[in-house]
Amino acid sequence: MLMIAAGVGVTPMRALLEDSDYEPGETALIYRFTAQEHALFTDELDDIAARKGVDLHYLEGPRRVDDSWLPGGYDGNDVDVLKELVPDIADREIYVCGPPLWVSSLRKALRAAGVDRDQVHSEEFAW
């Protein structure tokens, strides 16, 4: 299982991490937020990751361009970064939650990384 969240989209992911059954190393969370003061549940996520063996990645910073899901400061392209963070990405069930444009950018990168549409489960939110 791979969970990828932006901003408050981490809320359902935190619940999934806590309540789902998985072995250490079988689950990863990539959490995007613009600034540390906007990050939610990081202490809880750190605790869950330590207890349950979750591979946890925090990606902080504003998006680098409109068509990228990544923050500024990442030199690789969207697909390469996904494959670097989660090398077996094409074999995972993926849960995504974030704002619509960000989710759209991420879906494109996931498809380019070899992930089948049926493996991606997403929820979008907007203000």
Task: Give a description of the structure.
The chain has helices at residues 10-19, 42-52, 78-85, 100-112; strands at 2-6, 28-33, 55-60, 94-98, 120-124. A 5-stranded parallel beta sheet has the order 3-2-1-4-5, sandwiched between helices. The protein is of the alpha/beta class. The model has no long low-confidence stretch (mean pLDDT 94). The chain has a single domain, classed as Rossmann fold, CATH 3.40.50. 33% of the residues lie in helices and 21% in strands. It is built from 4 helices and 5 strands, in the order βαβαβαβαβ. α4 (100-112) links the parallel β4 and β5 (120-124).
Give keywords.
single chain; 127 residues; alpha/beta; Rossmann fold; 5-stranded parallel sheet; globular
Summarize the structure.
This protein has 127 residues and is of the alpha/beta class. It contains four helices and five strands, in the order βαβαβαβαβ. It has helices at residues 10-19, 42-52, 78-85, 100-112; strands at 2-6, 28-33, 55-60, 94-98, 120-124.
